[in-house]
Amino acid sequence: MMNKIALVVGASGIAGSNLSKKLISKGWETYGLARNPNNEIEGLKPVLADLLDKDSLEQALSEIRPTHVYITTWMRNDTEAENIRVNSLMVRNLLDTLSLNRSVEHVALVTGLKHYLGPFEAYAKEGFLPETPLREEHPRLNIENFYYAQEDEVYAAAKRDGFTWSIHRPHTVIGKAVGNAMNMGTTLAVYATICKETNRRFVWPGSAAQWNGLSDVTDARVLAEHLIWASTTDIARNQAFNVVNGDVFRWSRLWNRLAEYFGIQPVGFNGTIQPLEKEMADYADIWEDIALKYTLREKNLSRLATAWHTDLDLGRPIEVMTDMSKSRKLGFSIFQDTEDTFYDLFEELRAARLIP
């Protein structure tokens, strides 16, 4: 990777931290941009900047000449209109700043399945239910969506500056991060830990469709490989891709397997949705006690668990599978067993003293 310099935007998140590790392992000079830079990854060069502050970006990036830019971050707001305004501005500010030095050869943007299922305000609701498996050729929904706004910023900057691009649409990303806005894997690990410590049952929080239907997820390590592949493979450039592990599963089986791993009693779908956000609303003190008991590194439950997002995924009224034929045809062959994805994460959380 001679003369390949990566700028990972959002390097403290699940996707960004795993991507940074993978790039460094492959010999890339790698910078990690964040408001709170990741200082735990050996070899990562931290860059402190605020994507909403152009002066901050210009100062932080003035001496950096990235050839490849990976945008793995976003900011949640109260309405979709504000999501669009803020998240498009973040991408625009970044690419306008980098345009000054004209070093960028490729920009990769990570979005997700809300491209097909609709934004938070209309997520998987009647009128916005696509045919599954989800395929890249599905047209945009006739509704405002901040993913579309982010894509449009990339397309406009690419036309202006002449770089190539790729769009990556993972399903739920499973991997280790603290303070991440969408973190199902760690949320379930924390919930299972609380169940074990308090002799509670591990109750399925979602819908019948998700419990009984087929699903898939995206291991953060697979996403990292996919980002590097698309940004360095000529035939893959200037295209949008789905990216998932490559297998499918039913939560009706996996839920029981996860419960078995933690040594707790599972309870499956019982006819009604039982939101995890409501279940865990009063668990902050319980988690703090657990953290003190086992000398864990993070006693703030909200820094680890994002029950609202887990409910969003597990409460959908349809099964959701993601077609990856496009990537496979172009040569991306990496596969990951989903059960191993969860078990690997749990072991990593234990090693990092985030769960007992």
From TrEMBL:
Residues 67-356 form the PRISE-like Rossmann-fold domain. Gene3D superfamilies: NAD(P)-binding Rossmann-like Domain (3.40.50.720). It comes from the Bacteria. Signal peptide: none annotated. InterPro entries: NAD(P)-bd_dom_sf (IPR036291), PRISE-like_Rossmann-fold (IPR055222). Coiled coil: none annotated. Pfam families: PRISE. This is SDR family oxidoreductase.
